[in-house]
Amino acid sequence: MSGNKRLEEVKSLVSAHPDFPKKGVLFRNIFPVLRDVHGFKTLCDLIVEHIKSTSPDVELIVGLDSRGFLFGPIIAQLLGIGFAPVRKSGKLPGETYKVSYKLEYGEDSFEIEKSSIKQDQKILIIDDLIATGGSMKAACELVEKAGGNILQCFVVIELNCLNGRDKVNKPVHSLLTY
Question: CA 124, CA 151: separation in Å to the nearest integer?
Fold first, then answer.
């Protein structure tokens, strides 16, 4: 099956929920893809193929809390490399680097263990979605603070109308755009 047909297959599994989590928001739900064994395998295959063709020398996958954890470890394992989590503040043991970022209503923080990334290690950051770009921008700052060299940021879904990629100073690739 061609790449476009496989991509359309995955896209057909993503559900849309109007007015969730609040009025005026159209929520794109990735979980139906994960429930479909063939669809999830297809999604993982597409991600791995993209990474191998664009960043074959990636050394570590960094996944964002929490949906980046759904893809990150699996993709890392398929590529034969390690995985490091970026978590919300206070969730990781030991010494961490911390970066704060703005949300629509307030502020939040991400952390990564100081021992997670080697100096100049080639990193791919992965998450399920980019909307306004705040969390991906913060993750990039955090990985750079830890000494990593970001090759690209990868998301399954991008909400184009929110221009999130404009906040990120690294290459952003999305499989599905809405």
Answer: 6
Calpha distance 123→81 (Å, rounded): 11
Asked if 164 and 131 count as a contact pair (C-beta separation under 8 A), the reply is yes
Assess contact for 130 and 155: CB atoms under 8 A. yes
Which architecture does CATH list for 3-177? 3-Layer(aba) Sandwich (3.40)
| pLDDT score at 132 | 92
Q: Considering the chain, what percentage of its residues have pLDDT values greater than 70?
A: 98
**Helix-helix angle 37-54:68-79, to 10 degrees:** 60
Residues (pLDDT < 50) of the chain are: none
Domain spans of the chain?
3-177
Closest CA to 153 of 97, 46, 45, 72: 72
Distance between first and last Cα of the chain: 23
In the chain, the amino acid numbered 124 is L
Q: Residue 168 and residue 114: Cα distance in Å, rounded? A: 22
Return the residue matching tokens 């109007």.
18
Do residues 12 and 2 make contact, with C-beta atoms less than 8 angstroms apart? no
